[in-house]
Specification:
Number of helices: 9
Helix content: 40-55%
Number of domains: 2
Structural class: mainly alpha
């Protein structure tokens, strides 16, 4: 919150670009530890870390009819963009709506870069509220910022998640070290299917087949 300059009792519902590498460098923190901490905060429903997000651009019209008419008179080059926004995106007057720069470019017969420049100019003039496409990692805050003293991580839930994680790792090791049983059958049992038969094609099944063909019984289920 300090890094993103979010004051106490605010932040809920807000998206913020978050460069994990820059954050770790600024505070001299271990990247793996920070990633694990973000995951814990996600599990506590405090935030969501979107490592590879795609949030489409959004626009809302801010200017009233009289202001809009005067602006179009003073800036005739931006008038087509305003008219296309009003004609194409229902609800743009009432709320932020998703827009597509390529669609606007096709309708205006302009380059996408030029359309984005027009939108930025309209935003700067407070005619519209324009939020560009976001492709960088984001943090989405589910709750307002709380003070460090009031931040509470449920120790019982945290310990339970840790035990579940340790159990999953244990099963993975058990699968890797499986001495002779069918690996596919082991996986099926892990996911609740106790009736699955041997696959006949995993390394253990093939080894048993080879042993039987050679008249040996070196491996058992």
């Amino acid at each position: 919150m300090n890094y993103l300059q979010i004051p106490a009792s605010s932040g809920s519902g807000r998206y913020c670009e978050f460069d994990l590498s820059a954050f770790c460098k600024a505070f001299r923190l271990d990247r793996q530890a920070v990633s694990a901490t973000l995951k814990t905060l996600e599990q506590e429903d405090l935030l969501a870390y979107l490592e590879q997000p795609f949030l489409p651009a959004r626009v809302q019209l801010l200017a009233g009819r009289r202001t809009l008419t005067a602006f179009e008179t003073d800036h005739p080059g931006l008038k087509p963009a305003i008219e296309v926004l009003l004609r194409t995106y229902e609800g743009v007057v009432d709320r932020p709506v998703v827009i597509y720069e390529r669609q606007l470019a096709a309708l205006l017969k302009k380059d996408s870069g030029k359309v984005e420049e027009d939108l930025i100019r309209l935003h700067g003039a407070r005619v519209i509220e324009y939020t560009p496409i976001k492709r960088e990692p984001l943090i989405y805050f589910l709750r307002d910022r709380v003070t460090a003293e009031d931040l509470y991580i449920d120790p019982i839930a945290y310990r339970k998640r840790k035990e579940q994680y340790a159990a999953r790792i244990g099963k993975m090791l058990e699968y890797l070290r499986l001495p002779g049983g069918c690996r596919s059958r082991f996986l099926a049992a892990y996911f609740g299917d106790e009736k699955a038969g041997d696959c006949g094609i995993c390394d253990n099944c093939l080894r048993r087949k080879k042993s039987k063909a050679a008249g040996t019984t070196g491996y058992t289920v």
